[in-house]
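FIELD: query
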Amino acid sequence: MDSTIVRLLLAAGSLGAALLSSRTLLHDFQLESYQYHGYFRTVLRSLKQTVLPGALLALVGCLLIPHVHGVGMAVVWASAVLAMGVVLMLAQRRMKMKKPLVFTPRVKRLCAVMVLVYALIIGLCAGLIPSPWYGLALVLFPLLLPLWVALSGLVAWPMEKLISEMYFRDAQRMLREHPDLIKIGITGSYGKTSVKFILGTLLSERYQTLVTPSSFNTPMGVTKIIRTRLMPAHQVFVAEMGARHVGDIRELCRLVHPALGVLTSVGPQHLDTFRTLDRIKSTKYELMDAVPEDGCCFFPDDGGICRELYDRTTKEKRLCSLHPTPDADVWAEDITVSPEGSRFRLCTREGSIACETRLLGEHNIQNVLLAATVCLYLHMTLRQIAHGISRLEPVEHRLQLMHKPGGMTIIDDAFNSNPRGAQAALRVLKQFPERRIIITPGMVELGGEEAAFNRSFGEEMASSADVAILVGRKHTQPIAEGLRSAGFPEEQLHVVSSLDEAAALLRQLGRAGDTVLFENDLPDNYSE
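FIELD: result
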């Protein structure tokens, strides 16, 4: 009897401590959208944060387990590991996170499954492993917490798939009940969120428009917006469609069934999951494949992949270009860009109109032209479009210009970074007078080409910035190499460990008249 009680006490202590110590792993799983490739990559990249809690639990258990010879010492052992579990959980809660763990219904369900999975593993150990090896198994159990969290996610997957499909079909039903709703899908490696908000603003000059907010661009994100925000009065629905794997856009099109498809760009974004640029290209084109024969496809003339896909498309299509070309439907002339915004003439084959916007950079004119091309297809006038362009506001954290007390100008481009976006940001920074400072951790999710892209980023940075503050000593090494190879002054190159350190250094170095570009801000699962 005492032996059974001892085993139950040891099992309860190990179970409770393991659950309490799994908070960081659960957070990483959520940040990686419950995708195993990204989750295990984060575990390997941040071993200190992911493995240390389990190792500390194992250490405490190992020190005490030799003394467990009765019920009393079993209580002491269980209490000690539980106390360590509480300490680890509180320490994880106090860690400063840019995006904290959110206990969504899915996370709560996963926690319940974790309890069952942990209990089952510990129970099997209790039933199959004889003493004293059972105690050793409990001591070693926390060392494999990353695997147990992943196993719990795998066990929960069928339930989550069933729930998501139920919501998915409900959203499909709601869309079917709006047969006159004009549905627009937007995808691209870069620029899709910016084009989405630009298009939403322009369309609102004539139509009641629902635009998926923020970066809601996954099947469940778009499903939630349809189920909670779609109203009978809406005339147009604009859905951003993100992708990290082949087939992601196809799944979103199965939900939305867009009549109009907008491609903003194709480039080496998310190469860590797509592996090749050809797979990215084919995935983005899934949107155009889904557009019906009586729909229309919209492309920018980038002189590269987007142009290639435009030429290959046999459905009705429209093309926009930054410069006049024989086959462009919409283009710009008389472009003037400055630190205050942009001016240009929006041209079509039927006429033109002068436009002005606060958006920074020539690339944003391309985004505006693409949105305007869609609006013209939907029978909006040039005057309506120009008025909408004048109302455009910078999207938060995407080349957002802010003037700070003390005379410092901030360009916030911290949402994310990619090769094309980084080049555009550097061109914008170069337009500003006085001293120019860049704060960046570089680019991620570029697969095996990541170091090369960051090295090129550093080389280009050398001619645009006077001071460089790199965040993350390991990840930014290629950027520093690029800066040095381009002759950037060593005394103006600073490497820090965190964004907080960068902000503190900026307070020391900054002065009135400086322009500071914040280029990218990596999520918590990329912290070194």
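FIELD: remark
The mean pLDDT is 88.
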